[in-house]
Every structure is written in C-alpha cells, then in structure tokens.
Design a protein that fits this description.
transmembrane, electron transfer activity, iron, 2 strands, metal-binding, metal ion binding
C-alpha cells in the first residue's frame, strides 16, 4: 500500500477515535437538561467525564496535525473554506471547557445554571457541525482550479449536510446517555437507560436514512458494507440497552460510530475533497498529499508514538472505571467544603 493511501486511512482512524471518545462527552453534556433534576444530579453527570474529557479532545489535535502534515492541500482547502463553521466549533469547545472548570467555583444556583447552559450549547454545536462538515466533504463542494472553496457558509447548510449533522447529534447524544448508564448508579442509571431507549429509536431512523442516502448517492460497495455494519451495530446496541447490558450497548455504539465514519471515508476514496462543480478541480489522495519522504518520517513516528498513546489512554480509563453515584459526589463536596473552612 502506498503511504499516501495508508495515511488517508490513518486520518480516518484518528477521527474515529475522536468521534467515539469526544462523542460521548458531547452526549453527556447535552443530557444535562434531561437527566439533571438537581445540582447533585448534574454534578454526578459531569463527573462521569470529568477526568477524561480533555484527554478525549487531544484526538482532534492529533487528527488535525496529521491532516496538516500528510495532506497539506486538503488541510488548506478545508480550513480556509470551512473556516466559519470550524471557528464556531472551536468557540463551542472553549465554552464547554471553561464551563466544566468554572461552574463549581461559586455556590449560587444562577451561576451554575448559566454554565450548565454553556455546557449544553458547547456540546450540541460541535456534535451538529461536525456532521454537517463531513457530509459536505463527502457530497462535494464548489472548488476552483486552485482548489479554493468558492461557495459560502450557507451553501454548507444543504439538506444532505443538515441530515448528516442531525445524525451525528443524535448518535453522540445516545452514545453519551448510554455512557452515563454505564458509569452511574441508582436512579440516574435507570433514567439514563430509559432515555437511551427513547433516543435510540429516533437515532436508528435518522442514521439509517443518512447512511442509505450516502450509499445510494455517493457510495461504493465498501460504503454499503460499512453502512450496513453500522446499522446492525446500532440496532443491536439498542437491544442490549433494552436488556440493561450497558457495557455491550456502549461498545456497540462505539462500533456504530466507527463504522459510520469508515463508510464516509470509503465514499470519499480516492478523493479527499470532491469538487461538485467540476471533477477536474477535485482534491485527491495523489494531488493533496505531502512528499513520500515526509510521509515516511510520519509513518515511523506514528509506529512508535501511537501504541504509547493507546496504552496510556487505556490505562487511564481502567484506573477510572468505577461508577459515580450521588453518595460519592456528595461526600466529595462535603470534604471540599470542610477543607476550605479549615
């Protein structure tokens, strides 16, 4: 396999890692109005991702850096053409991160309510816009002969792209709610399981529609196989959640997201950014990639660095595998208050 083709799939794998891991972070944030009946509930929900949310976001940094180094033309066209959408995503991520850190700094209910709202917005906006962005990449956008995007921001808000955004929004929401049921105890866990069932029904319908549209309009045989796998995995995850097997439900939701991303990348191949106005202007794996020497250096670096990243993140999740409950969070809050007093 040529190195530029290998790196096309490596970048796909990096985005899979980002969407699977930060995806449930987004879902947890969006679930606050549905599962957080009081401040202690909301603390429990936020604490399920408290130790890992910033670690999960590093996958986006790695994916962006790999895209810049391996496919500089793709990176330049994407970030210049989609700059407004990507800026909104960045601002939403900043808003969410600040809210996680600041909501507990003051005891007033109004203070916490404002930051809780920011967490919801900062989670929902990227969940929606990432789907819009990737759907537009698959569908193709207007590019000139110099591979510059010639459309506007509102051209990106077309029916197919909006359906893609709704699909990622619902997938991440369901993924996050299942994660909450996996990481909590008692009443919150039960309510999360019920919400995952309700959200799962809508998600199955919307995701199936988007994947079918993708396969029929832009796909190939690999696209169809990955899309079918994603659909089956999503349905089995829904059934596992019905039976209360949240571990299997979460694993299968992760597989659903991974297979859906693979379906999108399979639809792109061998392009990286198709031109909807003239196929001759499309960016391909060949004309968008770096030099063979650059890709060779990157390959050796990834060979040694990626296993370390996998082992470290796996170890982190293993150490922090315990469930969170109202009792443990309440005890931690009381300890913090007593320490501050003394």
């Amino acid at each position: 396999m040529e190195l530029n083709i290998l790196w096309f799939w490596i970048i796909g794998a990096l985005f899979i890692g980002y969407f699977v891991l930060d995806g449930f972070d987004f879902g947890v944030g969006m679930s606050l109005p549905f599962l957080g009946r009081d401040d202690l509930d909301r603390r429990v929900i936020i604490n399920t991702i408290g130790p890992v949310w910033d670690l999960n976001e590093t996958w986006l940094i790695v994916a962006g850096a790999a895209l810049f180094a391996a496919f500089p033309e793709w990176y330049a066209t994407l970030f210049s053409g989609f700059y407004l959408a990507l800026l909104v995503i960045l601002l939403a991520l900043i808003l969410r991160g600040v809210s996680f850190e600041y909501r507990h700094q003051r005891p007033e209910a109004a203070w916490k309510k404002r930051f809780d709202l920011m967490i919801v917005i900062g989670s929902a906006v990227p969940a929606l816009l990432w789907g819009v962005a990737f759907a537009n990449i698959v569908q193709g956008v207007q590019l000139d002969a110099g591979h510059n995007y010639t459309g506007s921001f509102f051209d990106l808000l077309n029916p197919y792209a909006l359906l893609g955004g709704l699909t990622t929004l619902l997938l991440f929401f369901t993924h996050g709610v299942v994660f909450i049921s996996l990481k909590t105890e008692g009443d919150i866990r039960q309510r999360a399981q019920k919400l995952a069932v309700k959200a799962g029904i809508v998600t199955i319908v919307v995701a199936a529609t988007f994947l079918l549209w993708t396969t029929l309009a832009f796909g190939s045989l690999p696209t169809a196989l990955f899309a079918a796998g994603a659909a089956v995995s999503l349905i089995v995850s829904f059934l596992a959640n019905l039976r209360g097997s949240e571990g299997w439900a979460f694993t299968l939701m992760a597989a659903t997201i991974a297979l859906a991303v693979l379906a999108l990348f399979a639809s792109l191949f061998p392009d990286v950014m198709p031109a909807s106005n003239d196929a001759a202007n499309s960016l391909t794996i060949e004309n968008a990639s770096s030099t063979p020497y650059t890709l060779q250096v990157m390959s050796w670096t990834a060979l040694f660095a990626m296993p370390v990243i996998f082992l470290y993140q796996g170890w982190t999740y293993w150490v922090l595998r315990q469930r969170v409950s109202r009792t443990t969070v309440s005890a931690a809050v009381e300890t913090t208050v007593e320490t501050a007093v003394h």
